């Protein structure tokens, strides 16, 4: 199932403002084909994922959902270029991913990754200058633009230790989007936040996506968060991670929380993730436009 793209990607131009978006093509932006990932322990080689395949279209909010240990974060690191697949391949915009690059920016849940000796605006500018993407005047203008987008213009000269966890998260997102990557990679970015702040950050992320229409690959172990953030969800089995199903979830958002349909879908996803014997009834309950079983 390939969902129709909901919008367009942010430009990778060196202009300080987002450029007019290119029209989406028939080819997916990100292609993960039969990817198996392994890592070594002192005792043995452990397989983290087994022959995982999926595609992400321009402006998708694509979520990797699964229990702890299913390899979803490892898979994200492979897309980022930090890990080489033992089997299969990963292609971005038609090019094979073999190493990290500025077209893939990762936001982790540890927001102390912000250098504490740099102000907020210096943190946002840092990757633009370090990668020589922009010169200082242009980097400053772009940093101001994205700080305004995340509502932190008034804190441009503040230092990270003076910010709340949610504000640090927004700085990390602004810094990532300022690089205008082809795809934004987020590894459980709100997991360390309290419930109220996490809900607020989900809301702000969706509002930012509506305005900028960037492409997002998002990792979470929360079924609720997956349904809220994603318009497509890939379900990964417990270790080693295999594709259980792919779900079109564009009909859900924060307003859907607590609704009967939302709760029923969350329960079905839980059964798909953990109870193989439930595959038949779940498949019958959901429309084939919404779900693809991958057993």
UniProtKB/TrEMBL annotation:
Q: Name one Pfam family in it.
A: ABC_tran
Q: Known InterPro entries for this protein? A: AAA+_ATPase, ABC_transporter-like_ATP-bd, ABC_transporter-like_CS, ABC_transporter_ATP-bind, P-loop_NTPase
Does the keyword Transport feature in the UniProt annotation? yes
Q: GO terms for molecular function, please? A: ATP binding; ATP hydrolysis activity
Q: Cite the record's Low complexity compositional bias ranges.
A: 9-24
Q: Which UniProt keywords apply?
A: ATP-binding, Nucleotide-binding, Transport
Query: Which Gene3D superfamilies does UniProt cross-reference here?
Result: P-loop containing nucleotide triphosphate hydrolases (3.40.50.300)
Q: Where is this region: Disordered?
A: 1-24
**ABC transporter domain mapped to chain residues:** 32-263
Family as reported in the entry's similarity comment = Belongs to the ABC transporter superfamily.
UniProt-recorded name of the protein = ABC transporter ATP-binding protein
- Species of origin: Pseudomonas syringae Cit 7
């Amino acid at each position: 199932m390939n969902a129709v793209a909901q919008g367009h990607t942010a430009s990778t131009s060196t202009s300080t403002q987002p450029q007019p978006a290119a029209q989406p093509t028939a080819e997916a932006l990100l292609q993960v084909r039969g990817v198996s990932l392994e890592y070594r322990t002192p005792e043995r080689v452990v397989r983290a994922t087994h022959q995982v395949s999926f595609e992400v279209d321009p402006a998708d909010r694509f979520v990797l959902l699964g229990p702890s240990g299913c390899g979803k974060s490892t898979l994200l690191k492979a897309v980022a270029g930090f890990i080489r697949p033992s089997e299969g391949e990963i292609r971005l915009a038609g090019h094979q991913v073999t190493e990290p690059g500025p077209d893939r920016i990762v936001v982790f849940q540890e927001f102390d990754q912000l250098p504490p000796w740099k102000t907020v605006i210096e943190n946002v500018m840092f990757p633009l200058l370090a990668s020589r993407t922009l010169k200082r005047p242009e980097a400053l203008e772009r940093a101001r633009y994205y700080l305004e987008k995340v509502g932190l213009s008034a804190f441009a000269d503040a230092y990270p230790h003076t910010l709340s966890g949610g504000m640090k998260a927004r700085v990390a997102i602004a810094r990532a989007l300022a690089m205008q990557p082809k795809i934004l990679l987020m590894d459980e970015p709100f997991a360390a936040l309290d419930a109220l702040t996490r809900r607020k950050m989900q809301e702000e992320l969706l509002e930012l996506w509506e305005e900028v229409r960037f492409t997002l690959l998002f990792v979470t172990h929360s079924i609720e968060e997956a349904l809220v953030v994603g318009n497509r969800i890939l379900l990964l089995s417990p270790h080693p991670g295999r594709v259980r199903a792919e779900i079109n979830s564009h009909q859900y958002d924060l307003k859907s929380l607590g609704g009967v349909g939302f709760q029923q879908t969350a329960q079905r996803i839980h059964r798909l993730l953990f109870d193989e014997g439930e595959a038949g009834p779940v498949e019958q309950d959901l429309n084939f436009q919404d779900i693809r079983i991958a057993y």
